[in-house]
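tool_call: predict_structure(chain=1)
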Amino acid sequence: MNWFLHIDNKQAISSLFSENDNLNIVEIQLVKIFDEGRALKLRFDVPFVPDQLPKRWTIDSNTTQITISAWGVTNIEICSRENWTKGRLLVDDSGLIKKLIFIENSCQIKCDFQCLFVTKISGYVNEI
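tool_result:
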């Protein structure tokens, strides 16, 4: 299921994007485990920007960078066989515990969590 439907501060995403935007295909830039393993931060890029750019973004921005933090984290799993980090980010809420999952052929990140927040959204010019 879409990760952004499970964030506790939904207005951070809904003020910029619609539910039709494909925010599930991401390129992971940072994985950070902190607060003695009870929190996980993911920073990732999506290859598009909102139709209405925020005023502080440069007019040429073509990539959105989003940072999310999961709190109350348990059972962290990270497996990577290559440096390729473009894949699908989702939340599985089918059981009693919500699971944040990033999956790609050679890389997987999984953790159980209690709450999920967007902590930063910015735009930049990706020249690649």
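agent: The beta strands are 25-34, 39-46, 63-71, 74-80, 86-92, 98-104, 107-113, 115-124. Proceeding to next step.
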